[in-house]
Amino acid sequence: MFEEIYFDNYKSLIGADEAGRGPLVGPVFACAVKIENKRELELISLLGKDSKKLTEKDRERRYDKITKNFIYSVKYKGSEDIDLNNIFISSQEAISESVKDLKPNKENISLIDGKSFKFNFNFECIIKGDDKSSLIGAASIIAKVSRDRYMIKLSEKYEGYFFETHKGYPTKKHIERIKEKGIFEEYRITFNPVKKMILDEEIILKKELFSLQRLLRIGVL
User: CB under 8 Å to 130, separation ≥6 — which residues?
Assistant: First the structure.
């Protein structure tokens, strides 16, 4: 097991990952999962896996078992934060908040999927960590399912965008709906092709839905 060696130096481990860096709409979600002994590591190794390699049904099944058996925390940053701070910083902040919710200290280490992140607790970034580490994989499942459920609720609020199927990613069908129906405050207006469509006046922008700071970021007053 990838994480086993860490128990030689630490009493507990935290794994963290995010979901939703690429969509045009909705928050970026982060999750942290904590294990406190090798027995929990054995169990998490049976459940944790890169969420992108699982079917929706399998993710839901694993989500239920992970959330029932492990300590975890989920946090997110919305489109306002993403537009003002950029997606990397927003992801980093969401991850940081989820880990800090689990009380990191000198006796544990947090394994974070990705690279270049900076935190003020003991951590290690692992490239493709959701594939290498079952603990990070477990966090990726919870983050992904949490975000998908958010997008399904958003679909109920904004009918005709089909968020329940594409989850906010820039699919052909999604782009067509944006051109037909416009955008609302949950859209990330600093993301292309949304930004380009606004500046090219391909879609009508309801400025009252967005803060002045967000509009300034893309040069629209």
Answer: 17, 50, 51, 52, 113, 136, 137, 139, 140
pLDDT grade, residue 213 (50/70/90)?
very high
Q: How many Cβ atoms are within 10 Å of 88's Cβ, its own excluded?
A: 14
Per-residue pLDDT, averaged over 21-35, amounts to 98
Question: Which residue ranges make up each domain of the chain?
Answer: 4-154, 159-217
Question: What is the share, in percent, of the chain residues with pLDDT greater than 90?
Answer: 97
CATH topology of domain 4-154: Nucleotidyltransferase; domain 5 (3.30.420)
Q: Per the omega criterion (within 30 degrees of 0), is the bond before 193 cis?
A: yes
Closest to 111 in 3D by CA, of 88, 85, 84, 140? 140
Kindly compute the dihedral angle of the four CA atoms of residues 17, 157, 206, 170, in this order, to the nearest 10 degrees.
50
Question: What's the predicted TM-score (pTM) here?
Answer: 0.95
